[in-house]
Amino acid sequence: MAPSAGPGTAAGRTLVNEPAGTRGRTSIADTVVLKIAGMAAREIPGVHDMGGGLSRTLGAVRDRVPGGRPNVGRGVKVEVGERQAAIDVELVVEYGVPVPDVARDVRENVIAAVERITGLEVVEVNIAVTDVHLPGDEDEPIADARVA
């Protein structure tokens, strides 16, 4: 006779009398949290863009490619465990908007969205403001890559 594998199991199998919601496990990929956090951060007034200079430049090129989709995860890094997540966000803020207020609002919105949608506990959201968008600044034009 095989020993029981634990409460609610027989020889490693879940008993049918257990609630359906407890049978099995759910894992959430890093990219899921990355996209949720990116969307939540962009919802906050005062956030002009996300990411450092190089990632914004590459993103601008990608956005101009026909059929290309914007990268909602640009400027976001995540570490996801079984029950917790840690998130880093790089922001470009609009000139004149109080940076501490934008950072607080982004942090609160990211935590609320990730926890609500994934059920993970967000242990920290670190925010780095990498640039400020000045009035009249236009995004750097991308040089045409046409061969003459």
- Could you give the count of β-strands? 6
Mean pLDDT: 82
Radius of gyration: 22 Å
The helix/strand order is EEHEHEEHE
The share of residues in extended strands comes to 25-35%
Give a written overview of the molecule.
This protein has 148 residues and is an alpha+beta fold. Helix content is 30%, strand content 25%. The protein has three helices and six strands. It has helices at residues 30-42, 53-64, 99-118; strands spanning 9-10, 13-14, 47-50, 76-80, 84-94, 121-133. Strand 4 and strand 5 (84-94) form a beta hairpin. Helix 1 (30-42) packs across helix 3. The chain is elongated and about 65 Å long. Mean pLDDT is 82; it is low at 140-148.
Concise description?
This protein is of the alpha+beta class and 148 residues long. The protein has helices at 30-42, 53-64, 99-118; strands at residues 9-10, 13-14, 47-50, 76-80, 84-94, 121-133. 22% of the residues are buried.
